[in-house]
Amino acid sequence: MSDEAVSPQPCGERQTGTVRSGQMDDEKQRILRYWWMIELFSPQRVPTPTSRAARPADRQVVEWKQGEQLPWVALRPPPPIGRTRRVWQHTVYLGVYNLEETYERLHRAFGEDKDAYDERPAGRSACAGVLLDGQGVLSVDSAVLSSALWAVAQLDRRGVQDRAWADGFPEAAQAFHDAADKHEGERRESSGAESPLPQDSASLVALLRIGQETAGIVETPGLATDAIIIQSVAISAQLAQDASDIDFLNSFFLKDLATVGAELGEDGCGDALTAYLTSDDALKKHARVDVIQTCDATDRGVGVARLPMGRWPSDPSHSLALRQQFAVNQALNDLAPVAGLIGVNGPPGTGKTTMLRDLLAGNVVERARRLAALERPTDAFTPVTHCWTGSEGHPRRVRQLRAELTGFEMVVASANNAAVENVTTEIPVLDAIDSRWHGTADYFADIATAVLTETDTRNDEEPSEAVAWGMVAARLGNKRNRSAFQSAFWFDKKDPRTQEPVPGAAPRLQTTLAQWRDGVVPHARWSEARATFALAEKRVETILVARYQAQERKRLLPQVVESERTWTDTAARLQVDVRMARDLLAAARVSVERAGRECAMAAEVRDRCVQAKPGVVETVFSLGRVMREWRVALRPLDVHLNTAESAWYRAGDDARVLESRLEVLQRELLAAEAARQSAVVALAGLRRQLAVDEAGLAAGYPGESWTGAARELHAPWLDAELDTARSDLFLAALQLHQDFLANTAADMTHGLRAALEIVAGGGPHRLEPEKRRAAWQLFFLVVPLVSTTFASLGRMFGDIGPESIGWLLIDEAGQACPQYAAGGIWRAKRVVAVGDPLQLQPVVTIPKKVQRDIAASFGVSDTWIPPQASVQTLADRVSTHGTTLNQGERQVWVSAPLTVHRRCDDPMFTLCNSIAYNGIMVNGVKRRLDDPERPDLFDSMNGPLIAQSHWVDEGALTAGSHLQENQIARLQAALAYLARQGVAMEEVIAISPFRAVADRLESLSGTYPGLRAGTIHTAQGREASVVFLVLGGDPNSPGAKAWAASSVNLVNVAASRAKRRLFVIGDRTSWAEHNYFHQLATSLALSQAASAEGPKPPRVPEPLD
User: Fold this and answer.
1) Segment 814-819 mean pLDDT
2) Which end of the chain is more exposed for a tag (fewer CB within 10 A), N or C?
3) Using the 8-state DSSP alphabet, how is residue 167 labeled?
4) Which one, of 870, 889, 903, 1079, lies nearest residue 989 by Cα?
5) What whole-number distance in Å separates Cα of residue 808 and Cα of residue 411?
6) Confidence check: pLDDT of 1039 > 90
7) Spatial separation of the C-alpha atoms in residues 183 and 222, rounded to whole Å
8) Inter-CA distances, 649 with 589, 598, 652, Å
9) Model confidence at 240, in pLDDT bands (50, 70, 90)?
10) Distance (Å, rounded) from C-alpha 637 to C-alpha 656?
11) Helix axes 769-782, 720-743, angle to 10 degrees
């Protein structure tokens, strides 16, 4: 592999903040290069040899030595299971070595990080490996060379200063494959055999030497060993044919990381991967919205206009919780029209799978709406037809779907195999939908049932007897799963002995399409199918309009209340103003009258003075004196009269102004009273309508009681009527898809035949990406959702190209190393990462010290280093909507959380909510304890029927081992007690932090059939009514307890598995000294005390102590 093939190149000109594009692209290159490097040094471990006394009948692991009989010679043929014939498959690990030898060389090459500490041993891997069939014959293309050993040899020879030191592993791997093939050919030719020869002692040693030579470690102390381990497993004969798809020695992610690195340099990042690899400096922290502290953002996010038209057909009386609906709306409204990545923080028991089902329903309905817009079903295709020659020389053709019908492909992926299988094997089952639709929901139900029956076999157990309702999801992943799916889905079932069709077996899709094509089975015409779908769509639209109107009425209430208050205040103010105006006018009129009287009196006095004017004679005789005196007397009277008249006129003017003002105020008062009355009537009418709305919607109405826990428990505007209609529309959408297949049966027969070859891993090796993409798109038109592990995703989709998958839904994202998802995110247009960083962190096989050494050499920060970094942490940091949680001494931004927990009783719920989730969780568990037909096994109305959760204090007596047999004895006594109380062992999980204890717990399954046991890591994703946490712990190794208590994750996972009871067995004094275990001990002590003080049950439970 060349340096250019793995080193990212610039990914277009993207400018974010103040960080230059070139700087960001260089960091992406270094991150991908770092991830590729740690995967290069992360080989798979070889299995531990099994003891002869305890090994199961269908599996053994031996460390073979020369002179001993080889397993394919010694083992008897494995017995069949039912009608399933089984054969042995042997995995041969050549040159087994201790991984610590490679890590020491890495420390020397990259330098040591003094702060890093490795808390567990490295284990063993092998230089090379091959797969052999039951006769010991080498399986084609199975020869694998160790990437880690080859890389260590390169480092020793060339040194880390040579930037191209890691180039060339693909060539080395091919060289080993070719050399092994040549060796086997020469063996066959020299013996004159007509068929390949079984392996013998000499040939195994020869293959080992070829591996060591190719890896470059011949005679290298510590690395070149002669140890050979052989694992023999009994598998079905059919599965044995698909062994070549397995890389059982190296990391599954090397090729994908190399591909992404190369494409990164060709502007092939895609929006989702660009967001995933966002630099710390480019994070838009200022744009973050805390949806826990701020209600407005959540309320806007769950508005009626954002509600998807489709819904999973679960019980319509159980709508999604507020934040489940917020997450679904965010994905289908904000992410669907564009591209990118969002995170959803899903603590245990909060309904992550329920949320994913509604995403599925929403996408199926939207694609159906686009199908329904086509006047002719053939309009779904473009003029382009992709052609190629199939694996057996048959011509294959796939018509290209129109662009608007693509982008709905949904892939559920996880690092946890059980998690992805649970999603896709549970969704099609009849129990996954509400009983009201059991008689009507049928989307290829017979085929879906056959697929579940014939492919859902775990460890070659008897086939599943589940009954399915719809072919809406498929468990794919590795080639065996995909081949099994193809057979069960496409080909009619045949008798394995006669190869004749099994009478009465349901026809599979190939036959179903032929029956439609040939008119053997009738189907709806396209116009009828569209009309039927349109009716279901119209019903949802009508109800949504009513809900939108109800939402608008509620939105208007504050405005109408404010209007009524404003007019009431206005009328009251105007009434005061009118009274004041009347008083002023009355006073003004009095002033006018007074001024009039004063004016009249002044006029009268002046008139008397005028009448007393001296005559001419008198004036002459007085020489004008009397006239002068009269004039002096008249002058002030004139002034007084003028003043009085002016005052009178002014008083009159003032009165007239006041009269006008009063008239205006009276008119305003009348208008205000009318407006107030109108507002009162409007408010009363609105309140009556709101009361009707609230009565009709009940818990779905966001009224005054929609606060606190009630708000979290139920998304607004949803009720049974609307949810029933939305579920009916989803089923109608599936029926429209089925009718589309019936109306295009000829084209779909050819297309799906070709597509299923691609799905199963067939087709030309170098098929063009656009053809492979078209094949997958056609397949997803029929089966909308598939699941795979990250380990199989790259092989499954191959070179389909960037942003070729519509949706990547990552489950248990907190448990996945960040590099695992890089290839899937690169292939996806939209990514939804669902997980919980406070559950278990990723399991990292390479020691922490080595990781940090390599990270330092690439200048990579802690943000990108697992296990602290996971797919979830990287999705959380770029999610706009979320909240802040305390993680130890740090405050960490997490994506929008789901908050309603529906799994655990107390004290488990309260403990986890307190130590991990800042108290934001709401307990949605509902137990009916008074049902006489289904009495509760654990509790009654009068108190507990089975011992309450508590800590069984049992010391650690055996030094030098984490396994404490006295604690196992206490567990066995407790299991016997539960069995006497009628608790089935299938409802019990026993876990421990330590592998030695977990192995002992697993050994109890023979005595207690149905008991599930293992490490805490194996319990993630599971739940049980009763969980036993058996702590163990070497009393001379306090560091082991400190490791278990280094984060909240272990305690959080252990407690959140238990639905009804949690029993801890261990030394309470020593464990309670540590963080989180102290809170665990306190919580269980309080629970036990509360039980002792409460009412006594009808029968007192036997104590576990």
Assistant:
1) 94
2) C
3) T
4) 903
5) 5
6) no
7) 26
8) 12, 12, 5
9) low
10) 28
11) 130
Q: Where do runs of H (alpha helix) occur along 277-410?
A: 295-301, 322-329, 352-372
Please report the DSSP string for 104-138 in residue order.
Answer: HHHHHHH---TT----S---EEEEEEEEE-TTSBB
Q: Is the dihedral of CA 513, 514, 515, 519 positive or negative?
A: positive
What is the model's pLDDT at position 391? 73
DSSP reduced 3-state for 1035? coil
Q: Report the chain's mean pLDDT, rounded to a whole number.
A: 89
From the CB of residue 953, how many other CB atoms can be counted at a distance below 10 Å? 16
H/E stretch holding 976 reads helix 965-980
Q: CA–CA separation, 561 vs 811, rounded Å? A: 47
Closest C-alpha to 979, from 1004, 1002, 942: 1004
CA dist list (Å): 65 to 85, 96, 124, 223, 228: 30, 12, 17, 18, 7
Inter-residue contact 915 to 1027 (CB < 8 Å): no
Cα separation of 873 and 841, whole Å? 10
Question: What is the band of 804 on the pLDDT scale with cuts at 50, 70, 90?
Answer: very high
Check pLDDT > 60 for residue 116: no
> How many whole angstroms separate alpha carbon 755 and alpha carbon 407?
17
Q: Tokens 């049966």, residue?
A: 745
Its sign, for the CA torsion 30, 32, 35, 40, is negative
Q: What is the pLDDT of residue 716?
A: 95
Identity of the amino acid at 268: G
Tokens of 525: 């015409």
444/425: higher pLDDT: 444
| Range name among 393-407, 442-456, 487-501 with the lowest pLDDT average | 487-501
Q: Which residues contact 272 (CB under 8 A, 6 or more apart)?
A: 339, 340, 341, 803, 808, 825, 826, 828, 829, 830, 831
Q: Is the pLDDT at 623 greater than 90, yes or no?
A: no
Closest by CA to 1027, choosing from 955, 1072, 1073, 1084, is: 1084
Round to the nearest angstrom and report the end-to-end CA distance of the chain.
Answer: 61
CA atoms within 13 A on the CB side of 269: 24
Q: pLDDT tens, 887-922?
A: 777 888 999 999 999 999 999 999 999 999 999 999
What per-residue confidence (pLDDT) applies to 11? 32
Closest CA to 505 of 447, 559, 557, 456: 447
- Cα 136 to its chain centre, rounded Å, is 44
Give the DSSP H/E element, type plus range, for residue 817.
Answer: none
Specify whether the CB–CB gap between 536 and 736 falls below 8 A. no
Give the model confidence (pLDDT) of 297-308 as tens digits: 999 999 999 999
- Find the length of the chain: 1105
361 confidence band (pLDDT: 50, 70, 90): very high
CA angle, residues 127, 129, 134, in degrees to nearest 5: 155
Mean pLDDT calculated for residue range 977-997:
94
**Residue 908 has what pLDDT?**
95
CB 43 within 8 A of CB 100: no
Which of 1008-1017's residues contact partners 24+ apart within 8 Å by CB, and which partners?
Answer: 1008/975, 1008/979, 1009/985, 1010/984, 1010/985, 1010/986, 1011/975, 1011/985, 1012/986, 1012/988, 1013/989, 1015/991, 1016/840, 1016/991, 1016/992, 1016/1050, 1016/1053, 1016/1054, 1017/840, 1017/843
Query: Taking 60 as the threshold, does the pLDDT of residue 582 lie above it?
Result: yes
d(CA 669, CA 578): 8
> What would the two tokens of residue 777 be?
């798109």
Sign of the Cα torsion 829, 834, 838, 843 reads negative
Element (H, E) at 907: none
SS3 1042: helix
DSSP string of 703-736, one letter each residue: STT--HHHHHHS-TT--HHHHHHHHHHHHHHHHH
**In the predicted model, is pLDDT for residue 647 greater than 60?**
yes
Amino acid at 197: L
Structure tokens at 175: 């060289």
